[in-house]
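My current task is to audit a protein record that another person submitted. My question to you is simply how this chain folds and whether the tokens agree. This is what I was given:
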Amino acid sequence: MAALVSIVIPAYNHGRYLNEAIQSALGQDYPNVELIVLDDGSTDDTHEVLEKYGDCFVWETQSNMGQSATLNKGWAMSKGEILGYLSADDVLEPRAVSEAVAAFERHPEAAATYCDFNLIDPRSRVIRRVTTPEFNYRDMLVTATCPPGPGAFFKRAVFERAGPWDVSLRQMPDYDFWLRLGLHGPFIRIPHVLAGFRVHEASQTFSTTTETRAEEPVRIVSRLLDRADLPNEVSRDRSCALSGALLVSAQLHVRAGRLSLGARRFQHALRLCPLTILSPSVLRLLLNALFNRLGHRMTWAVRNSLSRFRQPLGRSR
């Protein structure tokens, strides 16, 4: 019998996009998918969207717990031997689950699978493709970024060894989780677009962060480096790993307008690992901090203007 794959959707005030996320999970070409949707105390029409589905899948409404606690609850409710999650504003391609299961069958040693994905705008139009890098645990730690995005799946047995998401983290709980999971086995990259990551004004990735949240990368990496079970080849890169975390923290502070604090984090990063300045990731982080929002807003504005321009032409014919 095909392995059961459980997908948890934590839904909080994304009623506008939730139906598309649900349909993408229900529309998988894989025959054995369990879907669990948890409304985490939404104040929009999320509950009404879910009510329309009746008992097509497991869903419930709860008082607000936060993303991490909601995912932990959903995975505890689930029965699958392979687990995944989907943000309520993201989507899966129809082959996402079947491709992940096939990758696990080819690589029984794997802890997780992940894929390429498209950035999509609020109207589900493709902005660009994100080609994820091949998995390298050291790179994931030193650059304070993680390849897995939407469309990632992992084994329940490994999840139980690595532990649940940290409910005290609000900005980067996924990064902390993938770092811990990666200590138990490799991640397998699937070089196909199997998901869509939505960029919009209300998304956490797009929003500005508090000072406490911007410090999370340093907290996560510092805590990991203190683990007794960290491989020697990873622990040797302590200074560069902390430098990478400080750079991401600097990016988050600059994006939120805390330029002085961002500059201090950047200087600290360079003191720890001077060669950091030669890394292409430094320029990428700075450009992202300064122009990420502006670029997406300009893209949306142009596309919306073109849409309004085309509509009258279509009617005149």
